[in-house]
Design goal:
The chain has one domain: Nuclear Transport Factor 2, Chain: A (Roll), CATH 3.10.450.50. Strand 7 and strand 8 form a beta hairpin. It is globular, with a radius of gyration of 17 Å. By secondary structure, the chain is α+β, with helices and mostly antiparallel strands. This is Ester cyclase. It comes from Catenuloplanes nepalensis.
Length: 156
Amino acid sequence: MKSNEAVVREAYRLAEGNVLDGHGFRSLFTEEGTFNDMPNSLTLRGDQIPQALTGLASVFPDIHRELLEVHAIGDVVAVELRIQGTHLGGFPTPAGEIPPTGNRIDVPTADLWYLREGKIERFNCYNAANVLLAQVGATPDFKSAIEAATAVATGA
């Protein structure tokens, strides 16, 4: 059986833009395994799991994860990394799609992988979504947020 660290490193390899093997990535998970995008409160299960890879790769086709630190402690593998790529595809948002800007992203991220018997049971991805959004030109609209909060507070 592969070590837990080897399983996680294989998951990263399969998620690279030049490899992008969603089926292979999914096969590393237990049947009930989950992929948790923590900043977006999104949990993917089963055949939804590869969607996280293909969705990101459709926006950043050259997606790459630079692993900075990898620490395996029993059935947990903690990874500090940077998600990098070029914004070459439309970026979907609730307000519409951000057209490709050609901007490079370099997003600090920490991942926690929980394994059981050589399979991924839970993958928690903590990416700096605010950094990614700023790097593609989607800065926060504080004025609208203040106006909405003021309207609620005043009952308007």
